[in-house]
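Sanity check. The docking grid for NAP depends on where the pocket ends up, so I'm generating a full predicted complex first rather than guessing from homology. Inputs follow.
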Amino acid sequence: MHVLGIAVISVDGCLARHEESGVSFASAEDQAEFRRAVQECGATVMGRRTFDAVRERILGSKDHSLLRTIVTREPTRYAELAQPGRIEFTSAGPREIVRSLADRGYRSVAILGGAQIYDLFTADALITEWQITVEPRLFGTGTRILSRAADPPLTLVEHRLLNANTLLLRYRVG
Ligand SMILES: NC(=O)c1ccc[n+]([C@@H]2O[C@H](COP(=O)([O-])OP(=O)(O)OC[C@H]3O[C@@H](n4cnc5c(N)ncnc54)[C@H](OP(=O)(O)O)[C@@H]3O)[C@@H](O)[C@H]2O)c1
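Predicted complex below; grid placement will be based on this.
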């Protein structure tokens, strides 16, 4: 299973600006890359707080081809929003999520964060590749890409400018 961590960060490693949620600091070029990578995967996993930041967009999406799995300790709280095969809520651990997606025929999944979800999948060494966009911003404070100690081995496989100031980095894990 190809497990792709996707994130857009500031130069100082923040996923979000100060106390804000969402990725309004991401460039249009990053968002186009994000959509392309997600469509290629066909399945995504995100934390409940990330879902909350983009809830209206997800619930209003006409795209029925993408499975979005939202990780929460209280999946029953979101039962009314669930649409099997499109929007699913789970309290399963990362290994179980990946196994279940593989059993359903998915060959790749995009892990969309936030930090708590990247932490979980990193702790179980499940992420096989990272696609990280670095935007020309320095926030000083804000949610970091990982919030727990980690040090996975990363091998740079691609680096590309998305515009004059925005850099896309792809790393293989291992
Ligand atoms: N720049 C980027 O690329 C990017 C990407 C993603 C997110 N973000 C931003 O990052 C922020 C959110 O990140 P975050 O780290 O605070 O939250 P998060 O990872 O999106 O979600 C955290 C939630 O996941 C659930 N969770 C965590 N560990 C769990 C476990 N072991 N079992 C079951 N459920 C578990 C909990 O949901 P419950 O509380 O419901 O139990 C927890 O509150 C937002 O501002 C978002 O916009 C940025």
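Relevant for the grid: Residues 28-41 form the longest helix (14 residues).
Also worth noting: The longest strand covers residues 2-10.
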